[in-house]
Amino acid sequence: MSEPFSVRVTVRGYETDVQGHLNQAVYLNYAEHARWALLQAAGVSQTGLVRTGVGPVVLETTIRYLRELLAGDEVDVTCAFEWSGGKTFTVRQEIRRTDGTLAAQLSGVGGLLDLKERKLVADPAKVFEELSTDPALFGL
Questions:
Q1: DSSP-derived secondary structure letter, 22
Q2: DSSP 3-state assignment of 10?
Q3: 19-38 pLDDT, tens per residue?
Q4: φ and ψ at residue 99, rounded to 5 degrees
Q5: How far apart are CA 57 and CA 118, in angstroms?
Q6: Model's pTM, two decimal places?
Q7: Is residue 45 classed as helix, strand or coil in its secondary structure?
Q8: Cα–Cα nearest to 26, from 38, 39, 11
Q9: What is the bridge-based pairing of β-strands 54-65 and 102-114?
């Protein structure tokens, strides 16, 4: 299996809490940033999704905080899609310092919402594959 998609982020001072740690909500922002960076790298744009009449939705997110992150730390945020064959998919993500220290693990369940019907599309993998110039980034 190939390495998961990854994007580098530097922790900014204004993202930290009173203890100097990265604020817990910012981990979600980093994960979201990595997911959209993967879509962009795969050739899937927001306008392309809207034009197709679908939009990604997050149905569930679990975060395990393992090590603190401080202002100035550089981290790599990974993103790997797992397909169930149904209406939903799982996105597994890690946030690691550049020295390899695992700071957080995220797991999310997502889907593609039909923007007109307001229901999940039956086969999101097929939609991503059709829209993508590089389906391998989605594990397809």
A1: B
A2: strand
A3: 999 999 999 999 999 999 99
A4: -85, 0
A5: 11
A6: 0.94
A7: coil
A8: 11
A9: antiparallel
